[in-house]
Design goal:
The protein has about 190 residues and is α+β, with helices and mostly antiparallel strands. The chain contains 7 helices and 9 strands. Strands 1-6-5-8-3 form a 5-stranded mixed beta sheet.
């Protein structure tokens, strides 16, 4: 549920500390509710979350949100848009106060061309996302909402992720009404 990547965080922290000019990698802060990226906007940076929790979500044509993941420290965003030279696929919004490393496009481009460690980290991230997406899709197809909600509540308590009912429903891909019915069954 909450994705973290300590290896990537350590890599970026090391790069940041080694930089003489701090304009290539900036530390930025976002408050709860702020958007790091908005769906369909043109991105200008790649971001690695230093601390805090964000949600990564699509907004569909009917204005419904579908949360793909909750992202924590060490998770990278904006790299797919950079590689494919496209607008933001989804929105990234802070659900707690968040600090990030914002990496300038020209510097990220230089690193992609010259740094094997970065490329290996990116390959690992992409493979992990494919595995997580496949697992989640099959889980949601095979189990009831109540079962999925029970697992979500367990993970929420274990990982101490603050989730509103709206975020729970968006993550499970159900309406608030369906979520409330499932909560009654799980709690009853």
């Amino acid at each position: 549920m909450l994705r973290k990547n300590q290896t990537f965080l350590t890599y970026i922290q090391r790069l940041y500390e080694q930089e003489n000019r701090k304009d290539k990698i900036l530390v930025k802060h976002y408050r709860e509710g702020d958007f790091l990226f908005s769906q369909d906007e043109k991105p200008t940076k790649v971001i690695l979350i230093k601390e805090g929790i964000t949600k990564c979500f699509f907004t569909e044509e009917n204005d419904k949100e579908y949360i793909l993941e909750f992202l924590g420290s060490g998770e990278i965003v904006g790299e797919i848009e950079f590689i494919k030279k496209i607008r933001c696929l989804c929105s990234i919004q802070a659900i707690t106060d968040v600090s990030v490393y914002a990496i300038a496009y020209d510097y990220f481009s230089e690193l992609v061309k010259t740094d094997l460690a970065l490329n290996n980290l990116l390959l690992d991230v992409f493979a992990e996302r494919i595995i997580n997406t496949s697992s989640r899709a099959s889980f949601q197809q095979l189990y009831t909402i109540e079962h999925s909600l029970g697992k979500l509540l367990e993970l929420q308590a274990k990982q101490e992720v603050p989730l509103s009912k709206e975020n729970m429903a968006s993550y499970l891909g159900v309406t608030i009404r369906s979520l409330n019915r499932a909560l009654k069954k799980v709690e009853g």
